[in-house]
């Protein structure tokens, strides 16, 4: 079994790891690293994808990877979307459209609710809420692993499809301007380079030590959350708000799955 994960703040990597612990013979692959291959091919009887939702849909890099991936021998395909609010969105519908063109199906899909890292919308949840979601997620992941082991089919709600699809499409259409809201406080910045290393799109350069965004952002917010001195903000709205990384995932684990692609 191969599980591809896409993660810059740890939720999806955590879920992928927990599935790996519960299932036999599982290989985890960073989707960012695998996406650097010109024509990736996976030939196994079971393949999974674990990713966050971006603007109610698939992250752009997940979409691009699926479009060029070849799935051999009609494997059992499953997908897990980590999110702050489940059921709103079309990530699985988007995924199914792409794979249908390759004569493949997604046999099982689930949402796992953890913590949203999208602090331009609102601050990170309180610790007690994070703890409750972690406990519920752990129980759900065990159920998911059992279903995958039995190659069960599983469907899930995808609500407000037209609204969510329109919202996602509008966001995707303005990709070149997405990162215009990011700013760096040069007085705080220590030029550690973590923002450049965590970026899955190679969208950050540091000609003078501080980050300069290159207008091909996928808005994963990895740079904002990994900065150890909170020098990076999304406009003024995120100033004073907490930063997030899943407590079971180290920054080095995230960087390992991204830096190898650079």
TrEMBL record:
Keywords: 4Fe-4S, Iron, Iron-sulfur, Metal-binding. SUPFAM superfamilies: 4Fe-4S ferredoxins, Flavoproteins. One of its GO terms (molecular function) is 4 iron, 4 sulfur cluster binding. The keyword Zinc does not apply. It comes from the Bacteria. Residues 180-209, 214-237 form the 4Fe-4S ferredoxin-type domain. InterPro entries: 4Fe4S_Fe-S-bd, 4Fe4S_Fe_S_CS, EFR1-like, Fe-S_Ferredoxin, Flavoprotein-like_sf. PANTHER family: ADENYLYLSULFATE REDUCTASE, BETA SUBUNIT, FERREDOXIN 3. This is 4Fe-4S ferredoxin-type domain-containing protein. It comes from Selenomonas caprae. The lineage of its organism: Bacteria, Bacillati, Bacillota, Negativicutes, Selenomonadales.
């Amino acid at each position: 079994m191969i599980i591809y994960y896409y993660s810059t703040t740890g939720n999806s990597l955590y879920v992928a790891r927990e599935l790996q612990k519960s299932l036999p013979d599982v290989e985890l692959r960073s989707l960012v690293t695998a996406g650097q291959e010109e024509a990736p091919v996976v030939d196994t009887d079971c393949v999974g994808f674990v990713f966050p939702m971006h603007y109610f849909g698939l992250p752009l890099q997940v979409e691009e990877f699926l479009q060029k991936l070849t799935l051999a021998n009609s494997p059992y395909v499953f997908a897990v979307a980590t999110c702050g609010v489940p059921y709103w969105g079309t990530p699985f519908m988007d995924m199914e459209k792409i794979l249908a063109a390759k004569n493949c199906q997604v046999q099982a899909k689930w949402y796992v609710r953890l913590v949203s890292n999208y602090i331009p919308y609102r601050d990170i949840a309180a610790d007690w809420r994070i703890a409750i979601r972690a406990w519920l997620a752990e129980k759900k992941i065990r159920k998911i692993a059992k279903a995958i082991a039995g190659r069960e089919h599983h469907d899930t709600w995808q609500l407000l499809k037209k609204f969510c699809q329109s919202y996602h499409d509008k966001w995707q259409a303005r990709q070149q301007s997405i990162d215009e809201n990011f700013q760096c406080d040069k007085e705080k910045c220590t030029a550690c380079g973590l923002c450049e290393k965590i970026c899955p799109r190679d969208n950050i350069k540091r000609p003078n030590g501080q980050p300069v965004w290159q207008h091909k952002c996928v808005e994963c917010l990895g740079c904002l959350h990994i900065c150890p001195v909170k020098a990076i903000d999304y406009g003024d709205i995120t100033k004073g708000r907490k930063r997030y990384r899943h407590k079971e995932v180290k920054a080095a684990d995230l960087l390992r799955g991204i830096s190898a692609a650079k």
